[in-house]
Specification:
The complex is a heterodimer of chains A (about 625) and B (about 300).
Chain A (H helix, E strand, L loop, with lengths): L13 H7 L2 E8 L6 H11 L5 H14 L8 H5 L1 H8 L6 E6 L3 E7 L6 H9 L4 E7 L6 H12 L4 E7 L8 H18 L3 E6 L23 H7 L3 H5 L5 E3 L2 E6 L2 E7 L4 E2 L4 E5 L3 E9 L8 E2 L3 E6 L10 E4 L5 E12 L5 E2 L3 E6 L2 E14 L6 E2 L3 E2 L4 E14 L6 H4 E5 L6 E10 L2 H4 L9 H8 L4 E6 L6 H14 L4 E5 H5 L10 H20 L3 E5 L5 H10 L5 E7 L2 H7 L4 H6 L21 E4 L5 H14 L6
Parallel strand pairs in A: 1-3, 1-4, 4-5, 5-6, 25-27, 25-28, 26-27, 28-29
Antiparallel strand pairs in A: 2-3, 7-15, 8-9, 9-14, 10-13, 11-12, 11-15, 12-14, 16-22, 16-24, 17-21, 18-19, 18-23, 19-20, 19-22, 23-24
Helix pairs in contact in A: 14-20, 16-17
Chain B lengths: L4 H19 L3 E4 L4 H14 L8 E5 L5 H14 L3 E5 L1 H6 L3 H25 L3 E3 L16 E4 L27 E4 L7 H11 L10 E8 L2 E4 L14 E6 L10 E4 L5 H11 L8 H18 L1
Parallel strand pairs in B: 1-2, 1-4, 2-3, 4-6
Antiparallel strand pairs in B: 5-6, 7-8, 7-9, 8-10, 9-10
Helix pairs in contact in B: 1-2, 2-6, 5-8, 6-7
Classes of the chains: A alpha/beta (about 625), B alpha/beta (about 300).
Chain lengths: ~625, ~300
């Protein structure tokens, strides 16, 4: 344990010493203002003297002015985010508050907003050791109680306190409380919540919050604060598990020191311990645990440390340092639950950045298995997740990742998804398990490979990816190029709407989700054809940057050639070779690119062709010239 | 054996600092010489040891800080072996902006808010560590640890990112920047306890001593140098005072106190939480006005 430099001193009294050695519990609260949540938090803050005098003064004034308690202190006013929201024109999503007792310090994550409830509650619960779910004793277990319990369990909160509030409204009746306790017990069992404590309270008067209730002598369990003071925090549970430390930063001040900085998220370590660097699997020993106050003999879960190893093994940011004899699993395909947090929906086939620990990789959403109705817990089939929806998906990463299931460890099993164009955090997820396919289905090693096939044809295979608006001239130019290549005795194939939409993809429509899948299939087919040694052209609108990026990622870097057929919308609409724009304008065609569906222009295409300046023939020549310059064709 | 709350807060702050250094190109630590800055600098030295913190310190100076603050600033930076950048808004200097003629709002806006933007643009910093805490004010309770700013340094509350677990998304577009608050989850009392436990060097003004002050509108203002403009008939008097927050000396209220040591300050603070609202108004007013300045964009 890292000791602070003045943990004891001449001028320190026992009371202060105790205060300095307090632990920390993080919890979140779920419930609406109607359940008395603000009143409960307000009471906890008040009773633990966490309110400053000016706050109390304001509260007294407001209570007299707008309070609902006949001039007595109305705690709800203290915490009601709504007033602050209105004043500032912002929505308070997750508010953090702080108080302390003699035993512990507390951080409370409170989610007052009604909008975006799932996203906010998930955020608040992600760091909580415990959740307090409030309900109104006169109403019992409601749909929102089910919703809160589901989310809290999903986020792996180990302790749930059901605070049965407003017992005064039901005459402090024991039977009433016990019925709710039974009802909730069934719900908790169904969800698999292991540790539940039900406490009958009256937040308004403080019954069983801090002080034991005089009105409910039949209740023998702990008061809320007693429980908060004693419940075991996750960190002490994790400390006895095998070591996990994601490497955040390599500390290299000079050539003779190479340390690895990170926060220990499970287990402990001491010099001499065998550790495994993952995913590489190399084994080494801990040499030193280095701090500015001297080397440590031991470090444990929760500490941010720098350690050195006895060997010169290759370790970089994102690697996981694990106990050598109990390492994490390594895989690149997973099943995971995803909570979607962005206004643009999650689509199958899309690629996002996935960050877990200190590692960021690319993840593709392969099928979304189902979404979960968080009120009924039913599974519903779907091809996309909208904001605040929760679904179970398969994920495929671009490289192997060391992980634990989220249930075992939030830090090595919890991840965020980041949109690589907007850079926003669009989702959060929990890894369940690796799909064994990665290990069990090995690629058939083929003796006749791409280069052998290409050599036979005497050519370098590649994919010419034409993108642009409908009517931009993609097919016309691609056809001309194909003819020119054929005339040079090159082996080619042209994929376009006619030969793909009528066959392979005839089950797909034109919604955003179907468009993503359409392009995914085309890209995969094109990849096989390139592998066969062909020069492949694909002429599709392919409006979204992320799918084009996905197609590019499937091929070697010099094999993918993006050609942007740049025709302004008015020009394309004027040409309208198939009369589609007119139909779209009349509202007869939905989701038409450029009209009611976006086109994201490429930022760095290999070639941009301005069709208002070049004839189709000249454009085709420009493509051929590009291939010659890149060594794909002999001049 | 689990960690104490201060050990957990320390580990969290170190984790955040390392994450920023690993993910952004040009980080900087805003250093205002106050107690929060003192803790931040101390944490940075621990986070990157044995390397030096891989970023400079930036003091956006108003030329009106307490003399004791300037003394500590230069000493602390030198001891940490870190580069100290001091930026003084040249326009404010040319216009002679000061708290006496221009009032606190204009003074703060021009020197600090505009000065900060100038400095960040000048050095092209893309992440700036700040010492703000969520317990400082109600509206701060929702502030993110990684707070995003547009290329024009605007804060748009609608596009702030959700922060789950220990995962922070530090990706941004060219020109955008972040303010990062490693002390988000600390309370004022935590800061004092940590300063005591870790022996963090602080400006002596935080400890009570006899100092020359004048009383204006119920606030005790220290007469720190000859630029202070006494009103007719006003005479500095010696009072035993300390400061709870430090800023420009003519704008900072002092607090009458007997707390000459850190444990005494900590005890006094703990007690003040239970006392009735008497005698402490000055202090709260001072801290509230400080907060307002921050909202105008300083942080």
């Amino acid at each position: 344990m890292q000791a602070f430099s003045r943990a004891s001193g001449p001028d320190i009294d026992p009371e202060m010493l105790q205060r300095l050695q307090r632990g920390l519990l993080r919890f979140n609260t779920c419930g609406s203002v109607d359940d008395g949540k603000s009143t409960l938090i307000g009471r906890l803050l008040y009773e633990s003297n966490a309110l400053f005098d000016d706050q109390l003064a304001t509260l007294e004034k407001d209570s007299k002015k707008v309070g609902t308690r006949g001039g007595e202190l109305d705690y709800a006013l203290l915490l009601d985010g709504l007033a602050a929201e209105r004043e500032q024109g912002i929505t308070i999503d997750v508010a953090y508050r702080y108080f302390a007792t003699e035993k512990r310090n507390f951080i409370v994550a409170d989610t007052p907003g009604h909008e975006q409830y799932t996203r906010n509650m998930v955020t608040g619960a992600s760091t909580a050791d415990l959740s307090v779910i409030l309900l109104d004793a006169s109403k019992g277990v409601l749909t929102q109680t089910r919703r809160h319990s589901f989310l809290v369990h999903l986020l792996g909160v180990r302790h749930v306190v059901l605070a049965v509030n407003k017992m005064d409204l039901v005459g402090f009746e024991r039977e009433r409380f016990e019925r709710i306790e039974r009802d909730y017990g069934e719900l908790a069992q169904k969800l698999g919540i292991a540790a539940v404590t039900c406490i009958p309270i009256c937040a308004l008067n403080g019954d069983n919050v801090v002080e034991r209730s005089q009105a409910m002598p039949w209740y023998q369990g702990p008061t809320l604060l007693e429980l908060l003071n004693t419940v075991e925090v996750d960190e002490s549970l994790l400390a006895s598990k095998p070591l996990r430390m994601p490497v955040q930063w390599v500390n290299r001040p000079s050539s003779d020191f190479r340390g690895f900085a990170g926060t220990i998220v499970a287990g402990s370590l001491q010099p001499g311990d065998s550790v495994r660097i993952q995913p590489s699997g190399r084994v080494s020993q801990v040499a030193r645990i280095v701090t500015r106050d001297g080397d440590l003999p031991k470090a444990t879960t929760g500490q941010a440390v720098v350690l050195t190893l006895t060997d010169e093994v290759d370790v970089s940011r994102g690697d996981l340092i694990s106990a050598a004899d109990a390492p994490a699993e390594v895989a690149n395909q997973f099943e995971a639950t995803i909570v979607w947090m962005s206004e643009a929906p999650l689509l199958r086939g899309r690629t996002y950045l996935l960050k877990v620990g200190a590692k960021t990789v690319e993840a593709t959403i392969s099928p979304i298995k189902h979404k979960v109705d968080i009120n009924s817990f039913e599974h519903v089939a779907t091809s996309k997740l909208e904001m605040n929806e929760i679904g179970v998906c398969n994920l495929e990463l671009d490289r192997p990742l060391a992980f634990d299931s989220y249930e075992d460890n939030r830090d090595t099993g919890g991840f965020i998804l980041v949109d690589r164009i907007s850079n926003d955090t669009v989702g959060a997820g929990m890894l369940h398990f690796a799909l064994r396919r990665a290990q069990n289905v090995h690629w058939q090693a083929m003796d006749v490979n791409k280069s052998a096939r290409a050599a036979l044809k005497g050519q370098k295979p590649c994919l010419l990816w034409y993108t642009g608006l409908s009517g931009a001239g993609k097919s016309t130019i691609a056809n001309l190029v194909d003819k020119k290549l054929h005339a040079r005795r090159r082996h080619t194939y042209l994929l376009d709407g006619d030969n793909v939409r009528h066959g392979l993809n005839k089950d797909l429509g034109f919604t955003a989700a179907d468009r993503v899948e359409n392009i995914r299939r085309i890209a995969e087919v094109a990849k096989l054809m390139v592998d066969a040694g062909l020069i492949v052209s694909s002429a599709f609108i392919s409006p979204f940057q992320s799918e084009r990026r996905m197609a590019r990622a499937l091929l070697a870097s010099d094999e993918f050639i993006e050609i942007f057929i740049d025709t302004p919308l008015p020009v394309a609409e004027e040409r309208d070779p198939k009369g589609l724009y007119k139909k779209a304008r009349r509202g007869e065609l939905k989701n038409f690119t450029g009209i009611d569906s976006p086109y994201e222009a490429p930022e760095n295409p290999e070639l941009r062709i301005d069709t208002t300046a070049l004839s189709p023939e000249a454009a085709a020549d420009a493509v051929i010239a590009l291939l010659e310059r890149r060594g794909m064709l002999e001049p | 054996m689990s960690l104490t709350h201060l050990e957990r807060l320390e580990a969290e702050a170190i984790h955040i600092m390392r994450e920023v250094v690993a993910e952004v190109e040009r980080p900087v630590m805003l250093y205002s010489i106050g107690k929060d800055s003192a803790v931040m600098l101390h944490l940075a030295r621990k986070a990157f040891y044995p390397a030096r913190p891989p970023f400079p310190l930036l003091h956006v100076d108003t030329t009106w800080k307490f003399r004791d603050m300037y003394a500590l600033r230069d000493r602390a930076a030198a001891e940490a072996g870190m580069e100290l950048l001091v930026h003084q808004n040249p326009e404010a200097r040319a216009l002679g902006i000061n708290p006496f003629d221009h009032g606190s709002a204009v003074h703060t806006h021009v020197w600090k808010t505009e000065g900060l933007k100038q400095a960040l643009d000048k050095y092209r910093f893309d992440a700036a560590f700040g010492g703000a805490r969520r317990d400082e004010e109600k509206s701060r309770a929702k502030e993110r640890i990684f707070s995003f700013r547009t290329a024009l340094h605007r804060w748009d509350p609608k596009v702030q990112r959700p922060e789950l677990w220990r995962l922070y998304n530090a990706r941004k577009h060219k020109g955008e920047s972040m303010r990062v608050f490693p002390l988000s989850n600390w309370t004022e009392l935590d800061v004092w306890q940590y300063i005591y436990l870790e022996n963090v060097p602080i400006v002596p003004l935080y400890l009570s001593r006899e100092r020359p002050v004048v009383e204006r509108d119920g606030t005790l203002i220290m007469v720190d140098d000859e630029r202070f403009r006494l009103l007719p008939g006003e005479q500095p008097m010696l009072k035993k005072v300390r400061f709870r927050t430090l800023g420009c000396y003519p704008l900072t209220g002092a607090l009458e106190s007997d707390a000459e040591t850190l444990p005494a300050v900590i005890r006094e603070m703990s007690a003040s939480r239970t006392s009735e609202r008497q005698g402490r108004l000055i202090d709260f007013d001072a801290s509230a006005s400080m907060e307002q300045k921050k909202q105008e964009g300083y942080f």
